[in-house]
Amino acid sequence: MPKIRFAPVAAAHLKDLEERPDLAKRLKAVRSALGKLEVNPRHPGLKTHEYKGEKCPHGDKVFEAYAENQTPAAYRLFWCYEPAERDVILILAITPHP
Fold first, then answer.
1. Strands 88-96 and 49-55
2. Residue 7 has what pLDDT?
3. What is the per-residue pLDDT for 98?
4. Under 8 Å between Cβ of 80 and 62
5. For 53, left (φ over 0), alpha (ψ -120 to 50), or beta?
6. Nearest-CA neighbor of 83 among 55, 52, 64, 49?
7. Which pTM was predicted?
8. Which phi and psi angles does 41 have, rounded to 5°?
9. Rounded distance, CA 4 to CA 26, Å?
10. CA distance readout (Å), 71 to 18, 20, 42, 75
11. Can you tell me the mean pLDDT for 4-16?
12. Residues 15-46 pLDDT 10s
């Protein structure tokens, strides 16, 4: 089972969600997605796929996973594997779909 780490930007995104009561439903969806990601990065509900055009800080692929779907500005998790530890997932950002 992979471990999850947060890049500083992603940690700030999560903290912002936690501090905003009006986004409680979105926070719940993000936490659920993080739990699924930790158990199985290819969980069907995450709809994980490579995010083209972006690279991790170390040059590997970036993946996008859905925290929400069919919702205006649905939240997404952007992540990659740590190069030295392939069982570690680095969350790069937690943001609304552009």
1. unpaired
2. 94
3. 67
4. yes
5. left
6. 55
7. 0.91
8. -60, -15
9. 19
10. 19, 18, 21, 9
11. 96
12. 999 999 999 999 999 999 999 999 999 999 99
Which residue do the tokens 């439903």 mark?
25
Sequence-separated contacts (24+) of 25-32 with Cβ below 8 Å: 26/67, 26/68, 26/75, 29/67, 29/68, 29/75, 30/67, 30/75, 30/77, 30/94, 32/67
Query: Both ends of the chain: CA-CA distance in Å?
Result: 30
Cα separation, 52 vs 31, in Å, equals 24
Taking the C-alpha atoms of residue 47 and residue 69, their distance in angstroms, rounded to an integer, is 10
The pLDDT mean for the chain works out to 91
* 33-86 tens-digit pLDDT: 999 999 999 999 999 999 987 778 888 899 999 999 888 889 999 999 988 777
